[in-house]
Amino acid sequence: MSSNIIKEIQMVDLVSQYQHLKVEIDKAVIDVMDSARFIKGPSVRSFEKNLEEYLGVKHVIACANGTDALQIALMALDLSPGDEIIVPSFTYVATAEVIGLLGLKPIMVDVNPDTFNIISEVVKNAITSKTKVIVPVHLYGQSSDMEDILTLAKENNLFVIEDNAQAIGADYTFRNGTVKKTGTMGNIGTTSFFPSKNLGCFGDGGAMFTNDDNLAEKLRTISNHGQRKKYYHSVIGVNSRLDTIQAAILDIKLKHLNKYSSARQKVAANYDKAFSKIESIQTPVRQNNSTHVFHQYTIRINNGKRNGLKQHLNENGVPSMIYYPVPLYNQEAFSPFVSHDMNLSVTEKLCEEVLSLPIHTEMDSNVQNYIIETVKSYFK
Ligand SMILES: Cc1ncc(COP(=O)(O)O)c(C=O)c1O
Description:
Strand content: 5-15%
Mean pLDDT: 96
Structural class: alpha/beta
Bound molecules: pyridoxal-5'-phosphate
Helix content: 40-55%
Largest sheet: 7 strands, mixed
Strand order of the largest sheet: 1-9-8-5-4-2-3
């Protein structure tokens, strides 16, 4: 394998992705610069509309990033300090961070060891009289089991905010055959357009989705300084906008999202096949009611050798990442929210066993073969 190929390996190849769309994207960016409508220019609403159509949702409200989207979503639900919000213990910090920030209480629950997502039976046991919201995170690109979560939420009069930062484009199928896009099933869905996300911009960006007109209006108002009419502020809000340049870029990339998901799925299928006979590797388990858009291809190494494999890959020029190395409840910032009777053994184990391998839309088969052979060589 030539050293050239080794140099090329990255978790996500954003340079090549840009090169394929360069002419179109450069023109769109220059058009925004020529118009000088950097804030709330026409591309923002145009992108929102196109995303509404793609997702089959009534309202898309763009904002500055995925963390803001979660925060604004919570702010729109008229919660009170101390209200409890159920979140997975195995997720990115943003999901729970905004809960603490708003004086609410994150209740962390364990996840399914195969799908890495929350399980309704576990969530059910965590519900108290203070519980107001469940936040399923569709981790790595696959939907949580939304039908059971939505039923549980309905029975207990709870809101559902889907953290869809990692699964945009994934489809969930209900038992009656209805298919919905992740992020459109709960009261509010949120996403991130961070550059490495499946639909990423060239900086920070995010959005909220809802089918509820009233919530949509609240989300728009809160994200715009709490004003419905300029300089008249009805509620405390924030300043969270998607820049016009980012919206123009996203509008172009959205047209390629399905193709991007297919490319990721192809890479994932190659990895699956290559690792199927390695006993200590558990390849990603597919849920039969969700498609998987593989924001990450995350394997479990179940023989205590995860860190050894990571080092071996690193020594051979193959990057890999641990999403996430520390359970939320072991993070110092979350110590005020941790109770002693927490039983989160799955999260604990996942933090020791998961490893994400390079996956992106421009993966070259020579590069992937090299990655596969490097993984295999560790287990020989
Ligand atoms: C699951 C999850 N939630 C929320 C976020 C926050 O998004 P952003 O980085 O755009 O604030 C991310 C992004 O990394 C994420 O992966």
